[in-house]
Write a structure and sequence with these properties.
five-stranded mixed β-sheet; flat; 354 residues
């Protein structure tokens, strides 16, 4: 995810430029401003002047799923993003920083969106103080939504987040039941692992199965990696239609997709990048040499090898990103200048960020 910074004063512009340089290796940073001083029409500049309203600017950035950093008053940020807020699990992270660079405050999507982590990163780079207000963080308690994000699990019922967090903050023990073969040792304070399937009510269930459980919240793994190859210029709607049809035939949902994977020549393919932005799915690419090293029986093509240096892109890319013991489930499917393959990765939960 990239970061879009908007400033409103000359001092804010200078701070935004400093932040962009400090974060250059971690994030793609784009700079915007409502302060026109020093910016000439038609002259290239690293800072783009925003001619529309701040609200329109914020809506466009949130639709792109980029993180937003306002260098200015909290009130400006709140009014700008309020009309575009939709879903706790999908909203883009939004932060505010004063123009003197003393404080950085995450105000939206602190856990799932990563605003808290981004605030800490900016604070670490700039010397500012991150002002974190989420209760589980300031009390150093187990946060079920952060646990889900860290383990690439999706939340099936977001209302359960409040139920589990309220219990944690009340000092009560939280019970978690994890599908066998995917659990690890838990040293998290206030968390008790119980047998799977649970015999009765449990606070959290982590499973890939479709059984109905009596639980506050059910977390499911993002198990599948889509490998893709395509001709240059394929638009996002063509890509979306092909992927949607393929996973629908498999009986899986978009929420179960862990990543999209391809060859390095496609790292800037606009249709693929836009699809990933829309769906909130990470996009990874590998060199031809890295793909050739993947072990397995793949659908080879001399034509493909002659063009990109490896006999198959989609199958190898899917298995490659699964890591150890990834399994190819759907071999190459070709349609309208695109190829898709789907692999399944092994998953395991961890606690304490380890």
């Amino acid at each position: 995810m990239g970061l879009s910074i908007i400033s409103f004063t000359e001092k804010g512009k200078q701070l935004s430029g400093r932040i962009a340089k400090l974060l250059d290796k971690e994030l793609e940073v784009k700079l915007y401003t409502k302060c026109k001083a020093g910016i000439k029409d038609g002259t290239p500049s690293e800072i783009l002047f925003v001619k529309t309203s701040v609200g329109d600017w914020a809506r466009e950035r949130m639709q792109e799923r980029t993180a937003l950093l306002f260098i200015g008053a909290c009130g400006i940020a709140v009014r700008a993003v309020a009309p575009s807020i939709t879903d706790k699990l999908r909203d883009a992270p939004v932060l505010v920083m004063d123009e003197q660079g003393k404080y950085v405050i995450p105000i939206l999507s602190g856990h799932i969106g990563g605003a808290n982590g981004l605030a800490n990163l900016i604070a670490d780079k700039t010397g500012a103080e991150a002002v974190i207000t989420t209760a589980t963080d300031i009390n150093k308690k187990f946060a079920v939504d952060m646990f889900a994000k860290r383990n690439s699990l999706y939340i099936t019922n977001k209302d359960g987040i409040v139920k589990v967090s309220s219990k944690v903050l009340a000092g009560k023990e939280v019970t978690i039941s994890i599908e066998p073969g995917h659990e690890t040792t838990c040293k998290e304070k206030g968390v008790q692992i119980v047998p799977y399937p649970p015999a009765g009510f449990v606070d959290v269930v982590v499973t890939s199965e479709d059984d109905v459980f009596e639980a506050s919240i059910v977390l499911k793994p993002r198990e599948y990696v889509i490998g893709i190859g395509c001709k240059r210029g394929k638009n996002v709607n063509e890509i979306d239609a092909f992927i949607s049809k393929t996973i629908s035939q498999m009986g899986i949902s978009i929420m179960q997709i862990f990543a999209l994977s391809s060859i390095s020549q496609k790292r800037n393919e606009q249709g693929l990048l836009e699809w990933c932005d829309r769906k909130g799915i990470a996009f990874f690419t590998y060199t031809a040499e890295e793909l050739r090293e993947v072990n397995g029986n793949f659908t080879g093509s001399a034509f493909v090898k002659g063009h990109v240096g490896v006999d198959n892109v989609c199958e190898r890319a899917a298995v490659k990103h699964c890591g150890r013991n990834g399994k190819l489930l759907v071999p190459k499917i070709a349609e309208n200048g695109m190829t898709i393959a789907v692999a399944k990765r092994e998953w395991k939960v961890c606690f304490d960020g380890k």
